[in-house]
Amino acid sequence: MMLSSELHGKRALPVGLIAQLGALALFLSTIEYMIPKPIPFMRLGLANVPIMLALPLLDPAGFFLLVLMKILGQALVNGTLFSYIFLFSLCGSVSSSLVMFLLYRRLGRFVSYLGISMAGALTSNLVQLLLSRYIMFGPSVWIIAPPFLIMGLVTSIVLGLFVMRFSTQSAWFAGKLLNGSEPDDRYDPAAPGGFSYDRRVLIGLLALPAFLLQQRLPGTLIITVCAVILAVTHGRRFRLLPNLLVIISVTAANLLQKNGIILTEILGFPITLGALELGLKKALTLIGLIYISQFMVSNRPRIPGRLGALISLQLFYFERITESWDRKAQGNLLGRIDTLLFTVEGAEYASEAGTGRGKEPAVGWQWSFVVISWGVLVAGFVL
Q: What pTM was estimated for this model as a whole?
């Protein structure tokens, strides 16, 4: 079926291909998410591989729809839709995708995938550093800028070379270039998409203002711990090492700014109480937002409308990729990915509306999180 004019004027979009590439982006971003990072928004950029592959396969509308699906899909799967990380991902992905698209369309004869990958990574990194200057680290962000940019450059070179090789050796990719990208008959744009705005979303939205208005470190700590417990009781996994890295990196960056009473000195550099408290508060706020977000999307809420149905198809393909990928399998990585794409393309799509994830935790505990959040905020003003 065709994706109608609401998304692309009067032309049909190859929604099957867009969903497949979007699912591959989710799969790669999930792998990347499991790799500990010293900075929470630091990315290896694995999910940019499908974006680069889409450059010769999709027209502008399809390409940027894929970018949007990548951003939303990452946020839903990783549970960062309502956190700072979503803002970083949104700005970084949009800016880098725009640069890569313009380079390919205007200078495609002279710029290879390697150059496109490097330009996209540089753009994304610069935009995210600018955001972190005002949201997380302050002026000291420029201290982490050199290693951040160097890492982005190295990974972009590796990914660019990989895409160059894949585009010349992949039978799946060659078939798409030869036959063109046709609409997927299995996709029904009239089908209900469904992101039921259930109480989890409402609870999270009610608790967020109290959390963000919290001025005291103990209050932020209490709400963050409750958010972690809430997310874990709803099926999300607590990973200690990434959270410790967030606390260490954000706190260390803020210690570079003198603020308040000097507690001690490390190698002649004064450690001040105000800077320590501010750094810990920022780190805990970031962690708390991630786990609140994970709780809000822990039931994989379904987005309504045609875009929602397309994202549902993307999530379907994502599950097929996850089920089909064998980490212990032998053979060339390029060939394994090629086979995986053919396998996913042949998967039969079936609506999963209404499926649950087991027994629902107590509703009272969910609503108590709102009470605790606002209670801690009020106590902070009174005491």
A: 0.64
In angstroms, the CA 112 to CA 153 distance is: 15
- Dihedral angle sign, alpha carbons of residues 229, 233, 236, 240: positive
Highest-pLDDT range among 171-185, 280-294, 340-354? 280-294
| Residue 196 confidence class, pLDDT cut points 50, 70, 90 | very low
How far is residue 89's CA from residue 79's CA, in Å, rounded to a whole number?
A: 13
Tokens found for residue 101: 């698209």
pLDDT at 349 > cutoff 60: no
pLDDT of residue 219: 92
Which region, left, alpha or beta, applies to residue 331 given φ > 0 means left and ψ of -120 to 50 means alpha?
left
- Write out the chain in H/E/C secondary structure: CCCCHHHHCCCCCCHHHHHHHHHHHHHHHHHHHCCCCCCCCCCCCCCHHHHHHCCCCCCHHHHHHHHHHHHHHHHHHHCCCCCHHHHHHHHHHHHHHHHHHHHHHHHCCCCCHHHHHHHHHHHHHHHHHHHHHHHCCHHHHHHHHHHHHHHHHHHHHHHHHHHHHHHHHCHHHHHHHHHCCCCCCCCCCCCCCCCCCCHHHHHHHHHHHHHHHCCCHHHHHHHHHHHHHHHHHCCCCCCHHHHHHHHHHHHHHHHCCCCCCEEEEECCEEEEHHHHHHHHHHHHHHHHHHHHHHHHCCCCCCCCHHHHHHHHHHHHHHHHHHHHCCCCCCCCHHHHHHHHHHHHHCCCCCCCCCCCCCCCCCHHHHHHHHHHHHHHHHHHHHC
| Beta pairing partners, 265 | 270
Distance, CA of 29 to CA of 80 (rounded, Å) = 12
Q: pLDDT tens digits, residue range 174-187?
A: 887 766 555 454 44
pLDDT tens sequence across 1-22: 333 333 444 455 678 888 888 8
